[in-house]
């Protein structure tokens, strides 16, 4: 039996590739088997939060704890690195931790991470508090914008001296201090420092926090944390619980696509851009009926932007100014005022964007550069619209019916009896006795008000011949 040399050589050269593929599949199978804990063996869920605490991460923590409990995990490790976040989102996360049916350990890591502001409250709420060397926590004073005087009954006007906090600010600080102090007392941690973190914005390093009994463990990584947490007694829903984490399999649950999408659209900068793109997309659709794509994209962006803003602590006066400004810019395209309405809309948009958010929480502010960029782009668009309007005004317009009769136009979209057509470089509403097709050429027979009476060139009435 003869073997062709070329075929034999090809088979030999294929062997290394086949062996490499086999080894790769084997390693992937081993890794997958290691990732899934054995039935009956203890396992620990690892959640990772790296960024400002907002609605997205609050939902991620809440769902992660529920899924870990449902899957039979013995412990949830929440690895945290945050500059702070929204008070409402922080409280959702804290409620989920307090109601957890299994222990939750907060681990501020890796080195260089922090649990500032809202992160401090989450760490205090957890059953076990741990930090990696080179990390810090604290500075838990609530920060809000004072957009107006105190409401009636909040205090006398003379209560707050110049340079002193107002009555509303005192209320917010006192509420936050009591909240963090209550969490400290619940977990048996240093309540005095917790109150100082709110009232004086103090911070601590990992070693200092351990010495001050603010945290329970200092560990270099998650396995070291699990080794030190094993055997500790904690209270879960008022019942004693002994942590069993020695030799437990670690199951990482990173943020999924839902969390990443929610985090993106709840970013105030992204929400503002989506809102602007949505309005302009609908504007282009109205100006060019039948284009479809601008309208679809605009509607999606507008709905996503509104959904993102709905989850944020927005100032409704600022939102109303933004919509008023966008409406003025849209009106400039349909009711040319040679820039007066449009530039007024740009000013309203900028003021509304600056007032949009009620909170100055880290990661949830609107950069002035973004507001300025969107305003400049809108001003350029308004300027271009005003220039077109001025050009159109200077252009001699046909006044008599005879100047339009006999003109040739092109239909812009399919229509049964009435539609739109381009006649003499302008878009006109047209009416015909027969259906019209997109791109079909028609001749103007007359005009009835603002509607042109047309007929297809191939169906002209007797006595009228195409050119």
Automatic annotation (TrEMBL):
All copies of domain NfeD1b N-terminal, residue ranges: 48-144
Signal sequence annotation: 1-35
Cell location: Membrane
Official protein name in the record: Nodulation protein NfeD
Pfam families (alphabetical): NfeD, NfeD1b_N, NfeD_membrane
Lineage, top ranks: Bacteria, Pseudomonadati, Pseudomonadota, Betaproteobacteria, Burkholderiales
Keyword list, A-Z: Membrane, Signal, Transmembrane, Transmembrane helix
Membrane topology recorded in Swiss-Prot or TrEMBL: Multi-pass membrane protein
Transmembrane portions of the chain: 261-283, 290-308, 314-331, 338-357, 369-390
Region annotation (Disordered) ranges: 142-168
Keyword Signal appears in the UniProt entry: yes
Domain NfeD-like C-terminal: 403-456
């Amino acid at each position: 039996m003869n073997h062709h040399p070329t075929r034999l050589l090809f088979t030999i050269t294929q062997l290394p590739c086949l062996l490499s593929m086999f080894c790769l599949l084997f390693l992937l199978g081993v890794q997958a088997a290691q990732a899934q804990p054995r039935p009956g063996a203890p396992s620990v869920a690892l959640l990772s939060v790296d960024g400002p605490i907002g609605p997205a991460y609050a939902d991620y923590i809440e769902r992660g704890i529920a899924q870990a409990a449902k899957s039979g995990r013995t412990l949830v490790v929440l690895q945290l690195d945050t500059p702070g976040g929204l008070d409402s989102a922080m409280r959702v996360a804290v409620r989920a931790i307090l109601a957890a049916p299994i222990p939750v350990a907060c681990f501020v890591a890796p080195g260089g991470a922090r649990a500032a502001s809202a992160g401090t409250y989450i760490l205090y709420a957890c059953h076990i508090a741990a930090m990696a060397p080179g990390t810090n926590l604290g500075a838990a004073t609530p920060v809000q914008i004072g957009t107006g005087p105190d409401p009636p009954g909040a205090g006398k006007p003379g209560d707050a001296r110049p340079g002193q906090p107002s009555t509303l600010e005192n209320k917010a600080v006192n509420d936050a201090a009591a909240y963090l102090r209550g969490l400290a007392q619940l977990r048996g941690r240093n309540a005095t420092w917790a109150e100082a973190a709110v009232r004086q914005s103090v911070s601590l390093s990992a070693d200092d926090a351990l010495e001050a009994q603010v945290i329970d463990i200092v560990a270099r990584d998650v396995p070291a944390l699990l080794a030190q947490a094993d055997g500790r007694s904690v209270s879960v829903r008022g019942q004693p619980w002994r942590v069993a984490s020695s030799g437990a399999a670690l199951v990482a649950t990173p943020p999924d696509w839902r969390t990443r999408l929610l985090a993106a659209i709840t970013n105030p900068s992204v929400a503002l851009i989506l809102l602007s793109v949505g309005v302009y997309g609908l504007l282009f659709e109205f100006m060019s009926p039948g284009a479809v794509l601008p309208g679809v994209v605009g509607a999606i962006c507008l709905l996503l932007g509104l959904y993102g803003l709905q989850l944020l602590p927005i100032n409704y006066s600022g939102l109303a100014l933004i919509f008023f400004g966008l409406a003025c810019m849209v009106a400039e395209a349909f009711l040319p005022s040679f820039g007066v309405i449009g530039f007024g809309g740009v000013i309203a948009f900028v003021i509304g964007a600056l007032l949009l958010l009620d909170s100055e929480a880290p990661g949830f502010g609107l950069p002035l550069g973004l507001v300025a960029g969107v305003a400049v782009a809108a001003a350029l668009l308004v300027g271009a619209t005003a220039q077109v309007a001025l050009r159109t005004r200077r252009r001699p317009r046909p006044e008599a019916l005879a100047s339009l009769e006999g003109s040739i136009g092109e239909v812009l979209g399919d229509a049964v009896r009435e539609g739109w057509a381009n006649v003499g470089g302008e878009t006109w509403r047209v009416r015909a006795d027969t259906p019209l097709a997109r791109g079909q050429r028609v001749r103007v027979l007359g005009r009835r008000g603002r509607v042109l009476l047309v007929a297809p060139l191939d169906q002209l009435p007797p006595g009228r011949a195409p050119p």
